[in-house]
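Reply to dn_fold:

You asked what the input looked like. This is it:
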Amino acid sequence: MALSARRSKTDVLGVRQRLLFLQPRRAVLGVTAVLAAVSVACGAPPVPGVSSDFSINRASDGHGLRWNPCAAIHWRLDSRIEPGAFTPVNTAINTLASATGMTFVYDGAASYSPQVKVWTQPSPLVVSFARQSGSPLGFASSYLSGAGQIGEGGWWASGSSQANIQIVKGYAVIDADVYNRSTTNVRAATLLHELGHSVGLNHAAYNSEVMYGMLAAASPTFYSAGDLSGLRAVGRPAGCL
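and this is what came back:
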C-alpha cells in the first residue's frame, strides 16, 4: 500500500506544506497553502513555547505516521544554484537529529529538483534549492508556485497494510531566489520548518514554535517546546517501527 502526498488537510495519507515570504509593507499574502499558508512578516516577539503545541498525521487506524526512527535516514542535497547551502542545511539536519534521536546520513550531492507526484528521488530524503515552476532559468520545481513562496516540505508513506504504513520518503525544496533575499534568521527558520514537515510535523497553533504557520522577524531559529514534543512523537522516543 503506497500513500502519496495529497492536497487536503483532512487527508492523513500525506502532507505538502508551503512556506511563503511576505514582501515589505504588504498584508499577509492571500495564498491558500495545501494545509495552511506560511508567510514571513514583521511581528511581536514569539510567546514562550507550549509543549502541547504540535500536530502530526495519523493513518486511518489512528497510529502516527512517521519514519522508522531506529533506521538511518539517508539524504542528499541539491545545491547546484545555491553553492553555499551545505553548511546551513547540515546544521539544520543536525538540529533535527538531536531533537528526534534519529540518525541522518549524508550521501553526497544530488542533481534533482523534487516535482509534484514524482517520487523517483535519489535518496529517501532530499533537500533541494530550486526555482519556481516554469522558470526559464531552469532548475525548476513544480512544488514552487512563486507569489513569494520560499519553500515546501512533505513526505510519502507506504506499507503492506494500514497497520504498518510508515514514512519512507521526504523532501524539503527551497526557492533559492527568495531564500537569497531573506534574512539569516528567516533562512534558518525556513530550513528547520521544512525539515519538520519532511519527518511528519504539521503546523503549530502558536507563534512560539518554528512550525507555526507564519514566520515573523522574531520567530525562533530553533525548535521550541511544542516543536520538540512533536519531534519526539515522530522520533526515536516513540519507539522503533
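The helical segments are 86-100, 176-180, 184-198, 225-234.
Hope that clears it up.
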